[in-house]
Design goal:
210 residues; alpha+beta; 2 domains; six-stranded antiparallel beta sheet; 32% helix; elongated
């Protein structure tokens, strides 16, 4: 019988070929090997496909010459295994017989085996449609860079911004705790008052002596 299989070239490229009069024990020749030594079934994945459980098997070698390493990223759990030369991927029906495998079918199975891939275009679209929560916040409640004033914010130029509540609290603290300069002024004023009173008393005393 003829069978559609996938050859994974050592460069990582997938190639679909039709094998006439398919025989599993001669599969190594389709991968370019002269001998079957070390060429064997490496792993089988069981995946539900089109409503039924199918299997997908990879054949290859785990030993070979330097610079002949296969660069294809196989799905887990063989994602960390190094293969040499070309590999072959075949599909097996639930009744354990081989079936045709196309690159399109394998790519769908490949995605499932990796747990699915995120659609980056869809993610970008979702980000664009997301509502900006700060768009409805009054301008006076945001910093000059557009961030929400939440008590303490540091701008890009290194200056610190404080909310209105903190400014009021600082003013109240200043009123309750006068600075040393203000205290010195009050002391000077008190001394002047005392000096003026003394001078008046001396003046009155001189009149009485006369």
């Amino acid at each position: 019988m003829s069978l559609n299989i996938i050859i994974v070239e050592k460069t990582g490229t997938l190639k679909s070929i039709v094998v006439k009069d398919f025989k599993e024990d001669l599969l190594y020749k389709k991968c370019g090997f002269q001998k079957a030594d070390g060429f064997q079934q490496q792993h089988i994945w069981s995946v539900k496909h089109n409503g039924e459980k199918s299997s997908f098997v990879v054949y290859g070698k785990k030993e070979g010459r330097a610079n002949s390493e296969n660069k294809y990223d196989f799905p887990p759990p063989i994602d960390n295994i190094l293969f040499f030369g070309a590999c072959a991927i075949l599909a097996i029906k639930p009744d354990k017989t081989f079936m045709d495998l196309s690159i399109e079918m394998w790519e769908k199975i490949y995605e499932k085996l990796f747990g699915g891939f995120e659609d980056l275009n869809a993610t970008v679209l979702e980000d664009e449609e997301e509502i900006d929560e700060l768009a409805f916040v009054p301008k006076e409640k945001k910093t000059k860079n557009g961030y929400l004033k939440d008590g303490f914010v540091v701008d890009s130029d290194g200056e610190e911004e404080f909310s209105g509540d903190e400014e009021e609290s600082e003013e109240e603290d200043d009123e309750k705790n006068p600075t040393s300069e203000e205290e010195e002024c009050e002391e000077v004023i008190n001394l002047e008052d005392i000096g003026s009173e003394l001078s008046e008393e001396e003046y009155d005393y001189s009149e009485e002596s006369n």
